[in-house]
Amino acid sequence: MPELPEVETIRRDLEKLVLGKILRGVRVKKSKMVQGDKLSFQRQLRRQAVKGLHRRGKLLMWELGKGEKFLLVHLKMTGQLILDDGKGVVAGGHSWPAVSRMPGKHTHLIFSFQDGTKIYFNDQRQFGYARVVSRTEKEQIVSRYGVEPLERGFTRQKLKEILAGRKTLLKNILLNQKLIAGLGNIYVDEACFMAGIYPGREAGSLNDDEIARLWRSIRRVLRQAIKYRGTTFNDYRDANGQRGDFLRRLQVYGRAGQLCQKCQVDTLKKTRMGQRGTVYCPKCQV
Ligand SMILES: [Zn+2]
Question: pLDDT tens digits, residue range 134-169?
Fold first, then answer.
């Protein structure tokens, strides 16, 4: 699933290319991908200029017109956005299936701009969605999201308050978008490993030192992942020859059964926590 670093990467890439461009319209191949009335969705996007491209958690928000309307796009499990402006292709989101000819069999929405640029919204499992909302509705929606882990509001004290008194597993608290926005399975496992904390602990049981380590680790792993353009598209190169390169830097996610690179003693174990596969080192994480 695309998490904060993957969504932020595609946001930055697309922003450079679509700011100021004017939408001609959108073709809806699968109505299910649109929340609300399909015809109204199409009508509201027609001849709209892109004023800004923002992110909250894993949600992409296209600011349109004079800023009174927003196109919200959530990639969920397997969503991808692929831009083709005739000069090159920029892709982001989920990594599989890899980008080939567009539109493909998983292309459900096609946004067309007046200059000929197209953005394809692909989604194999079709959990993602797009919708158009007013500024007020957008504010209501984002107010339900928790703190942004890379912004100023996410302090050690804030993390302490989030964890305080909670009997729930640490893993589940960190995955809860209403508490911290943007973390998913990959980066929660990586951050807990970096901090040396077992994600199956009761969230409220962490002491101040552990909270400080976890706080630093969450920010560090997200910053690094953004720097390396996320964990996706490792076999895909964009127009600038760049690729999502964090996959090779993952320490635990997807590495169950391998030797822990930190202690070089124990083997990484995989277990299930709150319906999610979780990889950790029994020696390094307590
Ligand atoms: Zn270890």
Answer: 999 999 999 999 999 999 999 999 999 999 999 999
How far apart CA 81 and CA 9 sit, in angstroms, is 11
Active site residues: 2-3, 58, 276
- Ligand 1 centroid–CA 266 distance in Å is 5
Cβ burial, residue 181 (10 Å; 0-12/13-18/19+): buried
Query: Which residue's entry shows tokens 């720097």?
Result: 227
**pTM (predicted TM-score):** 0.94
247: CA distance to ligand 1 center in Å? 19
Please enumerate in sequence order all residues whose Cβ is within 8 A of that of 7, keeping only pairs 6 or more positions apart, or say none.
55, 58, 59, 60, 75, 92, 93, 182
Number of other CB atoms surrounding residue 65 within 10 Å = 14
Give phi and psi for 39, each to the nearest 5.
Answer: -65, -40
- 137's enclosing H/E stretch is helix 135-143
Q: Is the dihedral of CA 102, 103, 108, 109 positive or negative?
A: positive
